[in-house]
From TrEMBL:
<keyword id="KW-0378">Hydrolase</keyword>
<feature type="signal peptide">
    <location>
        <begin position="1"/>
        <end position="15"/>
    </location>
</feature>
<dbReference type="Pfam" id="PF25788">
    <property type="entry name" value="Ig_Rha78A_N"/>
</dbReference>
<feature type="domain" description="Bacterial alpha-L-rhamnosidase N-terminal">
    <location>
        <begin position="170"/>
        <end position="342"/>
    </location>
</feature>
<dbReference type="InterPro" id="IPR016007">
    <property type="entry name" value="Alpha_rhamnosid"/>
</dbReference>
<dbReference type="GO" id="GO:0005975">
    <property type="term" value="P:carbohydrate metabolic process"/>
</dbReference>
<protein>
    <recommendedName>
        <fullName>alpha-L-rhamnosidase</fullName>
        <ecNumber>3.2.1.40</ecNumber>
    </recommendedName>
</protein>
<dbReference type="Pfam" id="PF05592">
    <property type="entry name" value="Bac_rhamnosid"/>
</dbReference>
<feature type="domain" description="Alpha-L-rhamnosidase C-terminal">
    <location>
        <begin position="802"/>
        <end position="875"/>
    </location>
</feature>
<dbReference type="InterPro" id="IPR008928">
    <property type="entry name" value="6-hairpin_glycosidase_sf"/>
</dbReference>
<dbReference type="Pfam" id="PF17390">
    <property type="entry name" value="Bac_rhamnosid_C"/>
</dbReference>
<dbReference type="Pfam" id="PF08531">
    <property type="entry name" value="Bac_rhamnosid_N"/>
</dbReference>
<dbReference type="InterPro" id="IPR035396">
    <property type="entry name" value="Bac_rhamnosid6H"/>
</dbReference>
<dbReference type="Pfam" id="PF17389">
    <property type="entry name" value="Bac_rhamnosid6H"/>
</dbReference>
<feature type="domain" description="Alpha-L-rhamnosidase concanavalin-like">
    <location>
        <begin position="351"/>
        <end position="450"/>
    </location>
</feature>
<keyword id="KW-0732">Signal</keyword>
<feature type="domain" description="Alpha-L-rhamnosidase six-hairpin glycosidase">
    <location>
        <begin position="456"/>
        <end position="799"/>
    </location>
</feature>
Amino acid sequence: MRFRFILFFVGVAFAARAQLQVQNLTIEQQASPIGIATLQPRFSWQLSSDKRGVKQTAYEILVASSKAALEKNIGDVWSSGTVKSDNTLFVHFSGSSLQVNRYYYVKVKVITNKGEEAWSKPVFFTVGLVKQSEWKAKWIGHDGGFGWDSITQWSRLSARYFRKEFPVAKKIKKAFVNIVGLGMYSLLINGKKIGDAVLTPAPTDYRKTVLSNTYDVTEHITTGNNAVGVVLGNGRFFTMRQNYKPYKINNFGFPKLLFQLDIIYEDGTNETIVSDQSWKFTADGPIRTNNEYDGEEYDATKELGAWSSVNYDAAKWIQPQLVAAPAGQVRPQPNPSMKVMEKIQPKSINRLRDGIYILDMGQNFAGWLQIKVNGKKGDKVKMRFAESLQPDGALYVANLRDAKVTDMYTLNGGGEEVWHPQFVYHGFRYVEISGWPGTPDVSDFEGQLVYDQMQTAGQLTTSNATINQVVKNAWWGIASNYKGMPVDCPQRNERQPWLGDRAQGAYGESFLFNNAAFYAKWLDDIEAAQTAAGAIPDVAPAFWNYYSDNVTWPGTYILVAEMLRQQFDDTQSIIKHYPSMKKWMLYMKNRYMKDFIVTKDKYGDWCVPPEDLKMIRSQDSTRTTKGALLATAYYYRLLGLMQNFAAIAGHPSDGAEYARLKENIRTAFNKKFFRADSNQYDNGTVTANLLPWYFGMVPEDKKQAVFTNIIKKLNADKMHISTGVIGTQWLMRGLTQNGRSDAAYTLASNKTYPSWGYMVENGATTIWELWNGNTANPQMNSQNHIMLLGDLMIWLFEDLAGIKSKAQGFKEIEMKPAFRNDENISAAYKSVRGEIVSNWTQENGKLKWTITIPANTVARIYVPAKSRKEVKESGRMIDEKNAVKFITMSGGDAIFEMGSGIYHFTN
């Protein structure tokens, strides 16, 4: 299997006055700050310059075995030579074979059309244990529970502690740890935690894949005796509801460890310390249970002392078992791990009744609560978590189903004690505190937001307070649900990676987060979950056995791959997954297509706003869309993407077949669903008309009439949303593309039910699962979901702010904002090629628009004007001196093209 990874080069290695910079280094799909998951890396970088119209004309990449060689511009591992190209993304390494447990040093030189050149700052990496043969360690664990554990539906399994002492007699040059700790682990060497990652490794279907992490631990190993300690938590490996509904919930076994420490000495010799039966093990430690749904219990009176340091008395510890390896193949983790990304100070704490207090964090989020407490030995502090309160101020937990969401801390009594859980997370805003010694204060608590390490990529504010709060709510909701995989919700007894939630959601999220590595990893999870026959589940990794064989949920596999291509110029994911995608398309066609209509659907237009605020789902047939219409329209859309994918993957004959099938489906679809007497599809819901209109299935002479019916339906609903998860994914862009950005803006800024603003008006700080999430039956009303965002984030950045990729990875940028009078927008997006900025205000028809275009790109902008002469840039008429090229007048816009730089337009 071939793994992907990119490097973005950060920093500059030239004088401060230099105008050209080669910058922004990251390592995509890395297992740790230094480890990569492939022997065939690909390099990428960005340019920055204060000149206009800057383009790269050539580059040179050097990979060296030492810093000294690189400083002398010697690429003894690989030198690309001077390559005449403007490409800055995914340049393949073509040097000699890379080896594990050694560093490689890289830099790139860029030459531009302005006669400038600059080197990047050197960066380094090492390679994880990519080959199975490189692992010398043995799997250890204990296949069973202990007297204090409970292996039932309400599983309680304590954490497992493993330790090993070993001598080091010689001077160390380098030391690397590769580790797999299932379900989760914490690594310590000589009493110190290694790294700042949490909840590692990322979850997978352990029957298919298990992920390792790599750490450089050189500075932690000393001459003389050393000790390593590993704590194992349960995670998704030992399931939260053990042996409960085995037809639905997959079990994987008891926690287990694979550990390998490779030491390279200064004299050139090597030594390897591995997990085996020479280690010591106990489960009778302070973490008495850790269950993602139910919480973590920590008894500080059971603390083990300096158990991960040398000379510890482990006489009462036992020998671990050699256990069977999980069925999945071990490979380096391809994406950064989770960590504490934000810290949140509570808003207030209030006494509910004697001994019970309610802590308000002021924000719904996912992570945990850190406490500082001082009391007697044996005092027990209990923390229960919830998203909202009942009218009497008590926790509202009915919507959490049977998740107990409770942490317990038993004090040791040795002064101030600071604690937070290690192997669970909670989705919450409120915490019920009981058993606190004395009176708690807000200063005793800190919320810690946990999600996958990734950059916040986009920021957007408007002059509309409701839209601004919705964007903020979206950020918190998306971050909360990034947990090594995209989960639906972080609080109740579900937390599953549903595909349908991310069909267009991943695309919108990409404007707020640099989620490329995260979703590339998820595509691997989806492929791993595919059956031999070709079926793709609704949930991947397949922790639940949900293979319902619909189109709209599994089709996310293809839609996310398209997002990675468009937003990040990632075509390798398409090439890698094309065979699996094709297999699924054929599977659905052969099983469920009859007379070119796909007959199978499971969920419909999920979560249409119901007619009664207490209902979860609408029962009114005039508000629901037929499953066959949804499935067939989506299959048609996916065929169009597969045509492009076939070309990218080198299968042109497949593309021709997809084109033929598309035409047959289009004909059959219109024959079956189009109502010529009313110019609508089927029963005329917004979704029923919108999908064929947006997907290009409507006959050309009927397009305007069908769109008119969409607007009529919106007007009948008083310009409020009537679509569910499926329709809302295309709604805002569909309206705007037919000239009704005003209607889209109304939907975005509404404050009454059903709308995103209605959530804000009712106190939401994230996005709800239901449009009526404050009143619906608690059976299904998570207050931290993102699936109802639809294409709102896409519309805000692409259509309202005007930041849109027209050639994959923003090589070409289209800036055509939906300008509104008496409105202002400030938006910035850190694209894969550099930051794009669009700030505009319009008052009394007069526009002021500031734009930043990154180097090595071209932007085409649309300025409202009657003629080109009305448009000025930096106060001057536009000519060649501005580095702005006039293209044409079209539809009331003057269209211009320019390269990189900062521009100020007025009309």
